[in-house]
Design a protein that fits this description.
This is MBL fold metallo-hydrolase. Helices cover about 25% and strands about 25% of the residues. It is an alpha/beta fold and about 375 residues long. It has two domains: about 230 residues, Metallo-beta-lactamase, Chain A, CATH 3.60.15.10; about 130 residues, no CATH class.
Length: about 375
């Protein structure tokens, strides 16, 4: 059996996710990412010809390009992710954890540890192709399921070779809690676990806290899911937040990110914990906002550990820079397993899955 993988977008930089896997005469699009920055065009969808699309989770760089696709194209996602689709967009259910057939290709999904309703994707072709979407081992709320083996691993490397543990991030954020703060966060991702942590910190320090209603609603949604779709021993903590009243004059505000700027919150410091747009980088450089990462992606050691667990022969780091010095660091981490070509051709007629014509692929343009 042969297969091919085309990284239409998301390879070599932090950008929209869009990957086409062709096998058994069918073409599947993994994610349909939208632009990270306002006004940027979604170019990967031009001339696209696929049989179905599978969405890993509902963050804009993975789902924001759905509007660029034909409305008749079969689209698969979990029911929670479907809530973020354009109004009226038809979709078919993807299991939060399980197996199904999509365009005749066996697909397995599991919890990715990153967001509400988010999953990783495994295609049972060419010795196994695993796509993590965005993934994390360190979430306090979302579990990460062990995936089946895969010869090819397409992995979330949004943090590059950064390898700081979550507790160090939490400690660094804690140092800022002595001032009035606003945390703008993705409402289905780190918002939920940061709510638990901030509630504990507020109680321990005697601080006042307010949590955005949409974040509370998402915590309620998580609590209503089967218990296996969240970490154990968190239910009582979620329940406590849901009955906790918001302070009328909070010193800590956890809000759904709506492109807030420092000027919108006089008297407060905005503390961002994830990706910064160019305008926010300028705000940070000017000292108008604060930044400290809260891990929601794979750290370098976790990425390598996942590749080992998959027994992957080829590993593609996605959503990260792949020019030197970063490329040299990836070579050190992954050795001969590192793959950086936009197009991979796979063949399982041999004993092991391998990349054909690897020396020529660097010069091959996408169709």
């Amino acid at each position: 059996m042969s297969a091919s993988i085309n990284m239409l977008s998301g390879l070599g930089d932090k950008g929209p996710a869009a990957i086409v896997v062709e096998a058994n005469g069918k073409r599947l699009l993994l994610d349909a990412g939208g632009a990270l920055h306002p006004g940027e065009p979604v170019t990967w969808a031009r001339g696209l010809d696929v049989d179905a699309v599978i969405i890993s989770h509902d963050h804009i760089d993975h789902i924001g390009g759905v509007s660029e696709l034909p409305a008749t194209l079969p689209l698969y996602c979990t029911p929670l992710v479907a809530q973020a689709l354009p109004n009226g967009r038809a979709w078919q259910p993807l299991p939060e954890r399980g197996t199904c057939q999509i365009a005749g290709i066996p697909v397995t999904t599991g919890q990715a540890g990153h967001s509400l309703g988010g999953v990783w994707i495994h295609l049972d072709v060419a010795g196994g192709i695993f796509y993590s979407g965005d993934a994390c081992f360190e979430s306090r709320l979302f579990p990460f399921d062990t995936p089946p083996p895969a010869q090819i691993a397409l992995l979330d490397a949004s943090y590059g070779t950064y390898d700081q543990p979550q507790q160090a991030c939490v400690d660094a954020i804690s140092a800022h809690l002595d001032r009035p703060l606003v945390f703008p966060v993705p409402e289905t991702g780190r918002a939920l676990e940061m709510a638990l942590w901030l509630a504990e910190e507020a109680d321990a320090r005697g601080l006042s806290l307010a949590i955005d209603p949409i974040i509370r609603a998402n915590l309620q949604t998580l609590l209503a899911l089967p218990a296996t779709l969240r970490r154990s021993h968190v239910d009582k903590r979620i329940e406590a937040i849901l009955v906790r009243p918001d302070a009328s004059q909070p010193s800590l505000n956890l809000i759904s990110d709506r492109d807030d700027t420092a000027a919108m919150w006089p008297g407060f410091h905005l503390l961002h914990t994830g990706y910064l747009t160019p305008s926010r980088c300028a705000e940070l450089a000017a000292g108008d906002i604060l930044w400290q990462r809260w891990n929601v992606h794979l750290c370098a050691s976790h990425l390598v550990g996942l590749a080992d667990q998959l027994n992957a022969e080829r590993v593609v780091p996605l959503f990260t820079h792949l020019s030197d010095p970063a490329l040299s660091n990836w070579r050190t981490l992954l050795g001969a397993r590192l793959a950086t070509q936009k197009t991979l051709f796979l063949n399982t007629d041999a004993l092991n899955t391998h990349v054909l014509n690897a020396n020529t692929l660097n010069n091959r343009s996408l169709a």
